[in-house]
Design goal:
42% of the residues are buried. The chain starts with a helix and ends in a 10-residue tail after the last helix. The chain contains 16 helices and 23 strands. The protein is elongated, with a radius of gyration of 30 Å. The strands form six sheets. An eight-stranded mixed sheet has the order 9-8-10-11-12-17-18-19, with helices on both faces. Strands 2-1-4-3-5-6-7 form a seven-stranded mixed sheet, with helices on both faces. Helix 1 crosses helix 4, helix 5 packs across helix 6 and helix 12 packs across helix 13. A hairpin with a 3-residue loop joins strand 18 and strand 19. The C terminus is likely disordered. The longest helix is centred in the last third of the chain and has 28 residues. It is of the alpha/beta class.
């Protein structure tokens, strides 16, 4: 509750002493100016201002910004929509800072924007959603934190998939391979914590669990990440889910590689941050690809279409493009502008007007200004918001339609396996049909079926170029092994005999025992102890007696300890110990 109140008051504490110039992009072209467009009093103004909040120099920002500008130009040049009205995009760089992002949002509110797009940061989105609620301005957000809810923030609308679904997709992948214990590695921020919390719930429904939450601070040093990985490597679970920022996530795998954690027996699953990085890179050097061989990753699924192909062919010629390729956030950015444009068109047709009024709550009880009085309430913001959530059209990313909880409908992900110089698709996940090797678009035309028998993925090549599925756990490093007596025989050596291998013994009986151990759903560390001198067959009667004698010795030791406890007026139930 304290954190909630603190966020709600943040915009009242930030005053005008740190205003930063705004970049204004759009109008009738791509020119940049420092003056915002004036608003008309007519029902269809000549220009309306749209705000955008992104970190420009980031994996998401470098794909989103050119797409936003391209969409603005396409809308403004299309005479069939917003007849006579142009969109003016005001782009603000949040610089990956919660403080700067919040100040940026307040600045945008001075410019009489009718909607704001972004931010990509869930932390910033939590704070500025209070501002948008107060001023009744729709926030078309790219923040994926599952706790960002339209129930709490009545002007919040997410135009990318909610991470809630991504975490359930990961839980289905874990369940598909039969693993029961998972370690989560994540950034300790709003997006990381809340996403992993949902993952824990999703795994519990599959009778699996998060055995450890390995969190590190957003600004963690190299040594801190190193220490974190060393600690999780001492645990039994070998299934790691990595939910981090796409701009810094590769450092995890660099450290893991150095620690010998990218070899056979390990399982690494990442959220969409890794494909977002790979898809938006001109080329990934071999050293980087070597770090992530065998990783399984989720990527937002966007249906193939002629629209998408045409956009891809235009990409290199768009303004502000820094790379020859883009990730899924470019498609969502483009669709978000068109969502707003189509909603505005209906809004104007229904008599909606762009007018603003003063908010008396931005002044203190004595009537003196708090330097925030230039921010005004969008009078019909609720009407525009209701129009937005009722939209239904096909964009570059697929069908744009919102469900009852204001999430994009039909969330789906590609399941990728990183290998060689790129990745291959081993299947798909959708909340409609679960895991499948058939694209979600085909399955949408059939009755939903998420039964276990219908869940399928293509074969995965795991770390260490292993084709055999890892069991997902190892013997604990600090556990006391089970000591197993093995007769050191002279005859019938095909059943059991001494060997120079790691276990020290070999034979048919050993193979059967090891196969049984492998079938257990938990670790059983064990060592073989040779019994006899190898010159003659040992007596099985003596072997059994010595085992019993060893157990009796342990029992006497326990009784001695119990006597010591009793002498000090302590109680200990030997049977239950």
């Amino acid at each position: 509750m304290d954190a909630y109140l603190q966020r709600k008051r943040v915009f009242l504490l930030l005053v005008s002493w740190i205003w930063v110039p705004l970049a204004v992009i759009g109008g009738t072209g791509n020119n940049t100016t420092n003056a915002t467009a004036p608003l008309s009093s007519f029902s269809r103004p000549k220009v309306v201002n749209v705000g955008a909040l992104f970190t420009a120099n980031s994996v998401i920002g470098r794909s989103a910004e050119p797409a936003l500008v391209a969409a603005i130009n396409d809308v403004n040049s299309d005479s069939s929509i917003l007849r006579g009205t142009k969109l003016n995009l005001i782009f603000q760089d949040t610089n990956c800072s919660g403080f700067v992002g919040t100040v940026d949002a307040l600045q945008l509110m001075e410019k009489e924007v009718i909607a704001a797009i972004g931010p990509q940061s869930s932390g910033i989105a939590h704070v500025i959603s209070h501002v948008m609620n107060e001023l009744q301005v729709p926030l078309l957000s790219f923040a994926t934190d599952p706790t960002l809810s339209s129930l709490q923030y009545s002007y919040f609308l997410r135009t990318v998939p909610n991470d809630h679904f991504q975490m359930y997709a990961i839980a289905d992948v874990v369940d598909y391979f039969g693993w029961k214990e998972v370690i989560a590695i994540f950034v300790d921020d709003d997006n990381g914590r809340n996403g992993i919390s949902v993952l824990g719930d999703a795994l519990a429904k599959k009778r699996a669990k998060l055995t450890y939450k390995a969190a590190f601070s957003p600004g963690a040093s190299s040594s801190e990440i190193d220490d974190l990985l060393v600690s999780v490597n001492l645990m039994e679970a070998r299934v790691f889910v990595v939910h981090v920022n796409p701009d810094t996530g590769l450092s995890i795998f660099s450290k893991a590689k150095n620690l010998g954690m990218m070899v056979g027996g390990y399982v690494w699953i990442t959220t969409d941050w890794l494909p977002s990085f790979l898809d938006s890179s001109d080329s990934v050097n071999p050293e980087t690809m070597d770090l992530i061989q065998g990783v399984v990753a989720l990527r937002h699924h966007t249906a193939d279409s002629d629209q998408k192909k045409k956009f891809a062919s235009r990409w290199k010629n768009l303004k502000n493009v820094e790379a020859s390729s883009f990730n899924s956030y470019a498609l969502y950015a483009y669709d978000t502008i068109w969502l707003l444009a189509r909603a505005l068109d209906l809004y104007f047709k229904d008599g909606g007007k762009v007018t603003f009024s003063d908010d008396h709550r931005l002044r203190d009880t004595n009537g003196s200004a708090l330097h925030l009085s230039s921010m005004q309430v969008f009078d019909q913001g609720q009407k525009l918001f209701q129009t937005l959530i009722g939209m239904n059209f096909t964009g570059l990313s697929g069908q744009i339609q919102f469900d009852s909880e204001k999430n994009l409908g039909h969330p789906a992900y590609d399941v990728l396996n990183i290998g060689g110089t790129g990745s291959r698709t081993v299947g798909y996940w959708s909340n409609y049909s679960g895991l499948s090797v058939v694209t979600p678009e085909i399955l949408y035309s059939k009755p939903p079926n998420t039964s276990t028998s219908t869940q399928h993925l293509y074969n995965v090549i795991w770390p260490g170029e292993m084709v055999t599925q890892p069991r997902g756990w190892v013997f604990p490093h600090n556990g006391k092994p089970l000591r197993i007596a093995v007769p050191y025989r002279v005859t019938f050596k095909e059943f059991v005999h001494k060997d120079k291998g790691p276990s020290g013994v070999k034979g048919y009986c050993i193979d059967v025992f090891e196969a049984a151990i492998d079938l257990l759903p938990y670790a059983v560390p064990h060592v073989y102890i040779l019994y006899g001198d190898g010159k003659r067959n040992p007596s099985f009667k003596n072997l059994v007696n010595d085992v019993v004698a060893n157990l009796l010795e342990m029992s006497r030791l326990l009784q001695t300890v119990q006597g010591l406890w009793t002498s000090h007026n302590l109680t200990w139930n030997l049977d239950s110990s």
